[in-house]
Design goal:
- It is globular, with a radius of gyration of 17 Å.
- It has a single domain (about 1-275), classed as Glycosidases (TIM Barrel), CATH 3.20.20.
- Strands 4-5-6-7-8-3-9-10-11 form a 9-stranded mixed sheet. It has a two-stranded antiparallel sheet with strand order 1-2.
- Helix 6 (about 200-210) links the parallel strand 9 (about 185) and strand 10 (about 220-225).
- It is α/β, with parallel strands linked by helices and about 300 residues long.
- The protein has 7 helices and 11 strands.
- The chain has helices at about 55-65, 80-90, 110-120, 145-155, 175-180, 200-210, 240-255; strands at about 1-5, 5, 15-20, 40, 70, 95-100, 130-135, 165-170, 185, 220-225, 260.
- Keywords: Carbohydrate metabolism, Cell membrane, Cell wall, Cell wall biogenesis/degradation, Glycoprotein, Glycosidase, Hydrolase, Membrane, Polysaccharide degradation, Secreted, Signal.
- InterPro entries: Beta-glucan_modifiers, GH, Glyco_hydro_17.
- Glucanases play a role in cell expansion during growth, in cell-cell fusion during mating, and in spore release during sporulation. This enzyme may be involved in beta-glucan degradation. Active on laminarin and lichenan.
């Protein structure tokens, strides 16, 4: 996905988090009954414009109504963190946010400074689950591992009790970065593995368990997983709303690890990408209509 200067891939990625204090155990069951554990959110409309606060509030209220208690973000664009926190407080919800700074190799310090200011302005720090510095910054060759570790350490020195980390793909996530982490998250998309949707939930767990061997002493989150509603097939993986519904039902009924569903709304402003699916991962379409109203209103 492309966010002006930032690109968020639909490919497998991981998130690591390190904090000044030992991170609390992963809260696997922090979700409302039958709701998705979490969701990825950009605070942008389907066409790519920044959402107003009123639009953010409506989105947060919709998440809350559907039992989605945890939100993952990617940057500080659109004034999103202050708006999301304000909306959560207005909704009187116990939602949490993975705050983030986009690392793209230029203006990184400005982005980090904005993040730090916004986090420090949050009165109820329980809302901030963790802070993620960068998304696939190494996979995209934006920065080196040493540079990224430096950014993480910089942020750790200025926040108290909040895990701090980064996002990258499993194959480009070096051991020194893992060693710095208290918490690790991995984005897993069974669709890109050519998996039939009927096996998507079990495939997700298999990939998760395989990755645990790389960081067995860490708490691990799945920070992206989803199913496209349109586009071309990838092996046995067939896009469609029936597949989307099936995967959501598998996640809410049998997946017991914490995950963030990709994504809240179709991103029509993105390039079509591999198999022409990049515009079609939303739970709702460009008009805001749910694609699967029997499980997400």
């Amino acid at each position: 996905m492309h966010f002006s200067s930032l690109v968020i891939s639909g490919l497998t990625a991981i998130v690591c988090a390190t904090g000044l204090v030992q991170a609390a155990p992963v809260e696997v069951n922090k979700r409302a009954s039958k709701g998705l554990y979490g969701i990825t959110y950009t605070a942008r409309t389907s066409a790519g414009q920044c959402q107003t606060y009123e639009e953010v509030l409506a989105t947060i209220q919709r998440f809350n109504k559907n039992g989605v208690m945890n939100i993952r973000t990617y940057s500080q664009e659109c004034g999103q963190l202050p708006n999301i926190v304000k909306a959560i407080e207005a909704t009187n919800s116990q939602m949490t946010v993975m705050a983030a700074a986009w690392i793209g190799g230029s203006d990184d310090q400005t982005e980090i400074n904005t993040l730090l200011t916004n986090v420090k302005n949050v009165q109820n720090k329980k809302i901030i689950k963790s802070i993620m510095i960068g998304n696939e910054a190494m996979f995209s060759n934006y920065v080196s591992a040493d540079t990224l570790v430096g950014y993480i350490n910089q942020v750790k020195k200025q926040v108290q009790g909040i895990p701090v980390g980064t996002v990258d793909t499993p194959n480009t996530f070096p051991s020194n970065l893992i060693a710095a982490c208290d918490t690790i998250g991995v984005n897993i998309h069974p669709y890109f593995g050519g998996v039939n949707v009927n096996q998507a939930g079990s495939n997700l767990m298999s990939q998760y368990n395989a990755f645990k061997g790389k960081a067995s002493n860490k708490d691990i989150f799945i920070t992206e997983t989803g199913w496209p509603s349109a586009g071309n097939s990838d092996g046995s993986a067939v896009p469609g709303t029936s597949g989307l519904q099936s995967y959501v039902e598998q996640l809410t009924s049998s997946v017991t690890i914490p995950y963030y569903f990709f994504e809240s709304i179709d991103s029509n402003w993105k390039p079509a990408g591999a198999n022409g699916v990049e515009n079609h991962w939303g739970l709702v379409d460009a008009s805001g209509k749910s694609k699967i109203p029997s499980v997400y209103q």
